[in-house]
């Protein structure tokens, strides 16, 4: 899944839906390039607020990994 492009309301249900069909969520890809705020970088951006935004997004992706078993 590419986050935020493939965002759903319930990741555990998505993982179950995949398992029921013999599939699995194999990877969660964080998008830290599309947002204009990241044009000078994301986690290495010179501005602390942009670094925080990127880190929050990455940690949200970790939560999605936990929910999907990825």
Overall outline:
elongated
Strand order of the largest sheet: 1-2
- C-alpha termini separation: 10 Å
Q: Helical segment tally?
A: 2
Could you state the order of secondary-structure elements as H and E? EHEH
- What can be said about the biggest beta sheet? 2 strands, parallel
Compute the number of structural domains. Answer: 1
Q: Taking Cα atoms only, what radius of gyration do you get, to the nearest Å?
A: 14 Å
Number of strands: 2
Give the DSSP E fraction (strand runs of 2 or more residues): 5-15%
Structural class: mainly alpha
Mean pLDDT across residues: 96
Low-confidence stretches: none
In percent, how helical is the residue content?
40-55%
Walk me through the structure.
The chain is mainly alpha-helical and 70 residues long. The chain has one domain (2-68). Helices cover 44% and strands 6% of the residues. It is built from 2 helices and 2 strands. The longest helix has 21 residues, at 48-68. It starts with a strand and ends with a helix.
């Amino acid at each position: 899944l590419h986050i935020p492009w493939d965002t759903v309301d319930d990741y555990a249900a998505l993982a179950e839906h995949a398992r029921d069909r013999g599939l699995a969520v194999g990877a969660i890809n964080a998008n830290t390039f599309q947002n204009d705020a990241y044009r000078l970088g994301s986690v290495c951006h010179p501005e602390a607020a942009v670094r925080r935004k990127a880190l929050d997004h990455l940690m949200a992706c970790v939560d999605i990994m936990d929910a999907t078993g990825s």
